Amino acid sequence: MNTAATFLIAVMSFDGSPSTTSTSACLPASRLPTSRIQAREQARKQWVDGALQATQDCGVVFVDPDNGIGDTAKASSKNGAKYVLLEELSPYLDRDQTLVIYHHLNRLAPADTQIKERMVQARQSLGESLEIIASRYHRGSARVFFVVASFGRLDDLKRRAELLIQSPWSQHFSLISG
Q: Whole-model pTM?
């Protein structure tokens, strides 16, 4: 039996102690969940590389995952395609592109707390000196737009964000700093 191509299932007894395991409890490697995970990871990498190539001449890149910013554990899950990973965004910043990242908020913590936590995570992942503007949209489901400014664009983007807050749209948006 090729041990590299099989996965041995350890059978636990009802009291939690290991019971005997037989070679008949082996699955072929092609049926392992990891093969699906690897396929998802490969497809994700191809998509991310394609998106990076398609936006190479853009000054601003709008990132619109279904659910927003996720963590590495979510990336290879069944719903992983609904999230963007912060580390996937660093090549855009390396090319001096401004990012606008759409993110849904959840109900596990107050919105402002979640927004500030994501801003901290973004700085930890992408660079401590990053300037991030967070614009929370209040209508419908809770969501936020994170604007990560490229070098030299921050003042212009801050001015435009302030104009938004002074416009009739002000009832729908608020700016969060952090």
A: 0.74
